Amino acid sequence: MKKWKVVPALLAVLGLTFALTACGQKAKPTTSSRPLTGFYKEENSAEDGTDKPFYWYFKKDGTVLCCSPEVESTNSNSDAESWYGVAKRGTWKSVGGNEYELKLHDIYDHDHYLLAAQLKGKQIHITDSEDDSKYQWGDSDISQQKGMTAAAYMEMFNKAKVSDQEGIQADGYIKADSDDSDSSSASSSSASADPNEIGRAIYRRVFPSEEVDSVEQDGDSYVVSNEYHSAESTIKFQINGDTVTYWTQAAGDTTADGHNEEHTVSISDLLGK
Length: 273
Fold this sequence. Notes:
- By secondary structure, the chain is α+β, with helices and mostly antiparallel strands.
- The protein is 27% helix and 32% strand.
- The chain has five helices and 15 strands.
- The protein has helices spanning 2-24, 150-170, 181-192, 195-206, 267-271; strands at 38-42, 54-58, 63-68, 71-72, 82-83, 86-96, 99-106, 112-120, 123-128, 140-144, 214-218, 221-225, 234-240, 243-248, 261-266.
- It has an eight-stranded antiparallel barrel with strand order 1-2-3-6-7-8-9-10. Strands 11-12-13-14-15 form a five-stranded antiparallel β-sheet.
- The radius of gyration is 26 Å and the shape is globular.
């Protein structure tokens, strides 16, 4: 009988040993990601084979710009004399392990992309996050460009914005400015304003003392929020031609979903143009 009593005691000692060993082990730290900053170039070509690269600008504040300048066709057999520029903006955020989520939208139309990115040395590999997304970007590798400056990039980006708008008008998605001076002025104010600028103007109107953290596309609408991204601090808005409609929490409402009271304002009034 005595030798069987040793077994429970031995098991207790072994259990205590394992418990102490487990407690002494430290959890492996999650690999943090380097911030995305700087300028990158993506080799790309137009339908006729003309070189038409994309240039990316990642900022420390979590925003990203992407543009492809207008270029003259180099294919003598092409039906196109030139190719319009493209300008997009969006946000990036780290998901750990030098991997990131990118959200891009075109400056002037509803094209939007949800992308996954992975930093590999001086290159970033980009691919679509959702295979069934309406708008597909595809796989691409972008390489760091050390010689570019912020001033040079913004000059290129602003020219691409103008060309992008011309291309969209040529395709009939947005009406070109009419000869009427009043409607022309209103259309010009709409065309020259992008969702990021509009979102920040709305936020200043509703929350004068708050700083905007992000403006992101959500289907055919946009949402603008501060650093807390709570329901009551987030504003949803839609751009409809020369006007903007946005929603705020109604006075006295306790649901805090931020979509109770509707406001409509002209873009020219909103931006003071």
